[in-house]
Write a structure and sequence with these properties.
This protein has 129 residues and is an all-alpha fold. It has 2 helices and no strands. The protein is 95% helix and 0% strand.
Length: 129
C-alpha cells in the first residue's frame, strides 16, 4: 500500500514539474496559430470587400434595369441587352466569391493538417518522456 501511495505522489510531483514545460510549447503554438489566423482573416476580408462590392453592384444594376423596364423607361431590346450584361457581371462576381471560398477552405484544411501533425509530434515527445 505504501508503494502505491509513493508512486502516486511521485507521478504527481513529476506532473507538477513537467506541466510548465509542456504549457510553454502549447503557448508558443497557440500564438503562432493566432498570427496565422489573423493573416488569413485579413486576406479574406480584403478579397471579400472587392467581390462583395462587385456582386452588390451587379445585383443593384439588375434591379434598377428591371424597374426601369417595368416603368416603361427602357425599350425591350435595350432591357434584354442590359439585363444580359449585368447578369454576366453578377455571375462573374459569384464565381469569384466561390473561388475565394474554395481557397479559404484549402487554407483552413492546411492549417488543420499542420496543427494535427504538431499535436502528434507533441504526443510523441510526451510519450518519450
Amino acid at each position: 500500500m505504501a508503494i502505491v501511495i509513493a508512486l502516486i505522489l511521485g507521478l504527481l510531483a513529476l506532473a507538477f514539474v513537467l506541466y510548465p514545460l509542456l504549457r510553454r510549447s502549447e503557448t508558443r503554438r497557440s500564438a503562432e496559430q493566432i498570427v496565422i489566423s489573423e493573416q488569413v482573416e485579413q486576406s479574406v476580408q480584403e478579397r471579400a470587400t472587392t467581390t462583395e462590392g462587385q456582386e452588390t453592384a451587379a445585383k443593384a444594376a439588375l434591379q434598377e434595369v428591371e424597374l426601369d423596364y417595368q416603368l416603361g423607361n427602357i425599350d425591350e431590346p435595350d432591357y434584354r441587352s442590359m439585363r444580359e450584361r449585368y447578369m454576366r457581371r453578377a455571375l462573374v462576381a459569384l464565381k469569384a466569391r466561390y473561388d475565394q471560398e474554395q481557397a479559404l477552405d484549402e487554407m483552413i484544411e492546411e492549417q488543420l493538417r499542420s496543427m494535427r501533425e504538431q499535436n502528434e509530434e507533441d504526443k510523441d515527445d510526451a510519450k518519450q518522456l
